[in-house]
């Protein structure tokens, strides 16, 4: 950087720090959180780090400086991460009659704790689900005060959290459920449930997952009010719990006699270690046929995708959709898979 001004050197130094953070973010999917728990928070901040490095790249390009190669390099090597955060392509155009519609939604307990001042949140969520009418629904943070009709969904399996007792998960199905089970994680209000569902001539296992909550507000100003060291420590502990829960989940999934659909709130991003372990060879419905950012949670202006629907390769994914309704701190997601499985 010979001949650069002092200001230019300072800018490049800051640029270098964010470039290093971005590269560390790329590595996190391959590093178990218990090794560097506090560093795992970068998996949630990857969209921000990508944007910052893109801004630096534009800055150096406009100034005609060779320092542009640093940000250009770290952005190019992370092209796979960029494509997992934004998609232009859409679905196949096939209709619901061609497949099985599955929805996942963290309802934030239908607002029974009054997090939103808007009226009738619980009733409006039920009305939304009734109108969209999926074949299978996975709800996280379910509360029994609000429920869908038995006539519309004759089959269901719910399991309240062993710790909280006041909320849990539920799977609604229009197709027969022949077997159910649950994973009750220790020292937490989070859990996983599953149901084996017979769809015409075939059977699939649907997991409804709600992994360890990070207890992060959707408002950045709420985060800034908490001591940064304490915040990182708390989130680091949550990431370690997630890792243990994922290992328990994988043991259960390995024993499934049927092809698997995993739907729910991962409380982590598609650039995290836990996502990579859970996904394995499965298809991410959003990555397959989704469009846009795929956001399911918003940290003020930062779109995060922390809710997923993953499908065994035996399933053909036809459509994926995000619903932009603000009845919870999460947004509902929906996919359509072909009813004829590929065995």
UniProtKB/TrEMBL annotation:
CDD domains: EEP-2. InterPro entries: Endo/exonu/phosph_ase_sf, Endo/exonuclease/phosphatase, GPI-anchor_lipid_remodeler. Keywords: Endonuclease, Hydrolase, Membrane, Nuclease, Transmembrane, Transmembrane helix. Residues 103-330 form the Endonuclease/exonuclease/phosphatase domain. The keyword Repressor does not apply. The chain crosses the membrane at residues 6-27, 39-62, 68-88. The lineage of its organism: Bacteria, Pseudomonadati, Bacteroidota, Flavobacteriia, Flavobacteriales. It comes from Dokdonia ponticola. GO terms for molecular function: endonuclease activity. Pfam families: Exo_endo_phos. The keyword Transcription does not apply. It comes from the Bacteria. This is Endonuclease/exonuclease/phosphatase family protein.
């Amino acid at each position: 950087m010979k001949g650069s001004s002092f200001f230019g050197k300072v800018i490049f130094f800051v640029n270098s720090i964010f470039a290093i953070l971005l590269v560390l973010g790329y590595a996190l999917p391959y590093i178990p959180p218990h090794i560097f728990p506090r560093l795992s928070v970068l998996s949630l901040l990857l969209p921000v780090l990508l944007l910052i490095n893109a801004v630096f790249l534009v800055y150096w390009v406009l100034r005609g400086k060779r320092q542009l190669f640093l940000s250009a390099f770290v952005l190019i090597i992370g092209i796979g991460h960029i494509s997992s955060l934004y998609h232009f392509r859409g679905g196949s155009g096939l209709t619901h009659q061609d497949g099985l519609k599955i929805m996942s939604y963290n309802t934030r307990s239908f607002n029974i704790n009054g997090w939103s001042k808007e009226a009738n949140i619980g009733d409006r969520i039920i009305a939304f689900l009734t109108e969209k009418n999926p074949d299978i629904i996975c709800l996280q943070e379910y509360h029994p005060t609000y429920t869908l009709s038995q006539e519309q969904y004759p089959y269901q399996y719910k399991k309240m959290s062993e710790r909280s007792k006041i909320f849990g998960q539920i799977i609604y199905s229009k197709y027969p459920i022949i077997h159910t089970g649950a994973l009750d994680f220790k020292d937490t209000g989070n859990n996983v449930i599953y149901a084996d569902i017979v769809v015409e001539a075939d059977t699939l296992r649907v997991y409804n997952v709600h992994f360890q909550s990070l207890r992060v507000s959707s408002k950045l100003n709420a985060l800034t009010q908490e001591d940064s060291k304490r915040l990182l420590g708390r989130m680091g502990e949550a990431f370690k719990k997630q890792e243990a829960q994922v290992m328990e989940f994988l043991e259960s999934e390995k024993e499934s006699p049927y092809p698997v659909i995993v739907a729910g709130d991962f409380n982590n991003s598609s650039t995290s270690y836990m996502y990579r372990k859970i996904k394995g060879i499965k298809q991410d419905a959003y990555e397959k046929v989704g469009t846009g950012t795929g956001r399911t949670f918003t940290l003020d202006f930062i779109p995060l995708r922390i809710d997923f629907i993953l499908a065994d390769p035996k399933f053909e994914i036809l459509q994926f959709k995000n619903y932009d309704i603000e009845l919870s701190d999460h947004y509902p997601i929906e996919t359509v898979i072909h009813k004829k499985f590929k065995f």
